[in-house]
Input
Amino acid sequence: MEPPATEAVDGPDRPRLVLFRWLRPGLPPFISQHLDEHVRCLRHHFDVVVIGEDCDYGEVCERHRPDLAVFESGVYAGPRRITGTSSCPDVPKIGFCNADAYCATRSVFLSDMERWGVETFFTLAVAMPEYTPEIADRLFLWPNFVDPGVYRDYGQAKNIPILFTGSQAPHYPWRSRIHGIVAPRFPCLTTPHAGWFDDSAAGNMIQGSGYARLLNAAMIAPTCGTIARDLIRKHFEIPASRTCLVTERTASVEAAGFVDMENAVFADQGDVVDKLQFLFSHPDELRRITDAGFKLAHSRHTMAQRDQMLQWLRLHRAARPGQRIVQTGPFEPLRLIDAAGGRGNTPPLSGGLDRALLREGERLLDRGRLQDAETMFLRCLNYHFMPEPVLGLTRRHLHGGDPREAIRWVTRSIERGLVHHQAQDPDPVEWAYFVRALICAGRLDAAAERAQQFPRLRHLELERIRWALSVLRGDAGRAPAPPEQSAGRPSVHALPRLDARRWLADLDSMLRACGRAELADSLAAGVPARRPASGADALADAVTALANRRRGLDAVPLVPDLPHVRLRRRLGRSRRARRDRADAGSPRGAIRQLAQREDLHSALLLRASASSWSTRALLDGLSSNPNSPEIVWVDEATPILRAGRSRHPGRRVPWRGMFAEDDPGCAVRFDLVAVGAGGGSPRVEERGALQAARFLVLTGINSAPMHLVHASLIEDEGYALVTHHPSRDNGCSVFRRLLG
Output
């Protein structure tokens, strides 16, 4: 028997909540549905008024008399303007961060909250406290949920064995890997995903009750919690539709009450095939697990159970002096404790894949292994754009003596917040490193201009670099030493904590690496940096300006000219969207996505040409793979006159270097092997590499002998054909070796 649809309950004692929400235009219908679900959930517990236009806070409070004001910001925020937020201090305010834990809009959210005077925050992302440690003690979880009137048992015939829904972008690595393993072995239905922001591209995506009925028609549906190993809607939508949830074992999933082989199935690439075979051969067990998951979702994870904001309001009213509100788990009730003692908020640690890469990058950077640190930060960015690896790359290039590259990296993150998401000010740590990079480039006047561009922006890192700049410029009234502490805006960046002495040593190291020993000496002595003689000022300024323009140091498009920057970004996004749409479903797109999304650590190119269609797609995907796979070329077949040959990634080795002399069949193992069209039949020495690879890319299959290799793989039950193009590169095909 299916549970009834949950409706809001009216009553005279329901507190009134005003939700300030400004949405960007053109959002797809399924995103609008998610946003509407948030409002309907709040209406279970509050009388809700939504404000979505420019307004004065005092006038809104006077008109609606709210008991609680909620300010939403994050990834879907559009143009927003509200005045007078310092009025009506008796109305408690909380901020709602609607974004993934790793999303760059975390800094936009913090900027908005600082401007609006909000100091208590809620979020849907269970992993968010780990990603924003500076606000973790005042960040509460309002986890995802389902509307039981939509996600329920419709009695659909279970005619879809396995259903894959949602994105398989790089930041869903578990889902992509499992799909690659499962799809060749079991009957599957995979639905397309057209993104989260473009109504014209994503308008045809299935949503609402149609999506719930599709889920209900499936026996099994896998999903994951992104690179953050978080808890997303699908974790609840799937079991609530009476479908068996297959997912990755994470702390967040276990905190929600899911238990392996009881009410869900935990799997990884090593055991997913065995577990699915067991479920299909034991339908009673599959039905038992499915029913238990259905019961869990409808008893603990519907709108009715998401009253955390109401709990907070009641505790806020009841709190005595010296007490504070804490949340000991994402699904535990909020409670009051003495502020002087007791543990604060204790969410489960997500163990995000990107966080592990960041920690390793920081460790390598601290040890001076700059190139290895850069690899870790780039691997992190290949999953998704995030501010933390961008700042890591900024610091890496300053330590490596390249302020131009450091400026290029840090301004990418700053512009994303200021221009694309229309934040009023940047992240303070990023701005401090922008100023630091300008100093390392010798541009003290430009650094001084930027240091004062946001005078109300405060953070210890920013105050310290402002102090260093005042010393170098000889400004009066400077402090005798860099500050040891400073109250200010929270940042998304959790840098190593350095005392003033170690902070100065770090800056000194960067200045000297960038060829600014005179600035480092001046700072160490506490005296202003020497300026050119007055007669040479004009000539020196002209020469410096010309040199900076040639080196790209003046290319810092941070306010003004914002409309032009927005236009460039829109054009860039549209070009990428057109390319992705053209590639969608094509063999070229399949090769590129396979190389980008699969868990690859090494690739061998045998007699491949960098000018060929398939190799270009392969290299494009490998360059964006989060693992930064090693690329090895044997007998490269690129025409010798091809421009830029030396820039092709990877290392070139003779074929003998890849195989053991005493056992020619013993080859170094590679995850992927691509065989070029120009060679003959694979040598005996190369067959071991082919047989060991998980993926094979063959070109020239329209001619012997590669046609024979292609035909043998078609007949081999141990391989599945991924894609095939009959004419490109004289015929091209891609195979996946099946596991187990």
